[in-house]
Amino acid sequence: MIRIGHGMDVHRLVEGRKLILCGVEIPHTLGLLGHSDADVAAHALMDALLGAAALGDIGKLFPDTDERYRGADSLVLLDRVMEALSEAGCRPVNADVTIVAQKPKLRPYIDQMRANLAAHMGVDVSQVSVKATTSEGMGFEGEEKGMTAHAVCLIESR
Ligand code: MG
Q1: CA atoms within 13 A of residue 104's CA, in its CB half-sphere
Q2: Among 16, 42, 44, 61, who pairs with 74 as Cys (CB 3.0-4.6 Å)?
Q3: Which residue has the higher pLDDT, 61 or 154?
Q4: DSSP annotation string for 30-87
Q5: How far is ligand 1, taken at its centre, from the CA of residue 23, in Å?
Q6: In this structure, are residues 50 and 4 in contact, taking their beta carbons and an 8 Å threshold?
Q7: Contact call for residues 20 and 26 (beta carbons, < 8 A)
Q8: 156 C-alpha vs ligand 1 centroid, how far in Å?
């Protein structure tokens, strides 16, 4: 059976934090605030994968009240999500992630983002898409108060 999943996430932008998107540390004056590394794109992807398998969400798997996940590398959390999918008899077909951010320009980092996600999902890079868009200066993304990520995926289940 082919199943579809959707995920979305938002994190605040603040000074004094690293900006990490799909496991790539991107030089910027602001970074995303969160209990883990706040990798908003990886979080949206994980929720899409979990949603496709009807396995809940990352808030259920990795509660932000749990000290084990303070500063956690979200790609390591993605490994855990893939284990949960595998145990449920599911494997990913493809995923498409969109990041909404006013600054910085993300194009130079897209290939590395795709490679990171594909490696941790155990699929070919051709099965993973990462895109970036601005919100034309409007809303909290446009005012650089935060970033949003959306993700959809297909998975195959036995
Ligand atoms: Mg999050």
Answers
A1: 17
A2: 42
A3: 154
A4: -EE-SSS---HHHHHHHHHHHHHTT---HHHHS-TT-GGGTT--HHHHHHHHHHHHHH
A5: 13
A6: no
A7: yes
A8: 25
Ligand 1 centroid to 30 CA: how many Å?
16
CA of 82 to the centre of ligand 1 (A): 17
The two three-digit tokens of residue 86, written as one number: 């595998």
Least confident of 67-71, 80-84, 116-120, 154-158: 67-71
Q: Return the biggest CA–CA distance within the chain.
A: 46
Mean local confidence (pLDDT), 40-66? 95
d(CA 56, CA 16) in angstroms, rounded, equals: 32
Q: Cα of 150 to ligand 1 centre, how many Å? A: 11
The verdict on pTM exceeding 0.85 is: yes
